Amino acid sequence: MAPARDVPLTNQEEDQKPGSRCTDIDAVAVRGNTLLLIDCKAFQATDAFMRGEYGAVETMRRKVEQASEAWHDRIGLIRSRPELLGIQLPADYSIEGLVVTPFVPFVRGGPATAAVGELLHVSSISEVFI
Question: pTM for this structure?
Answer without folding.
Answer: 0.79
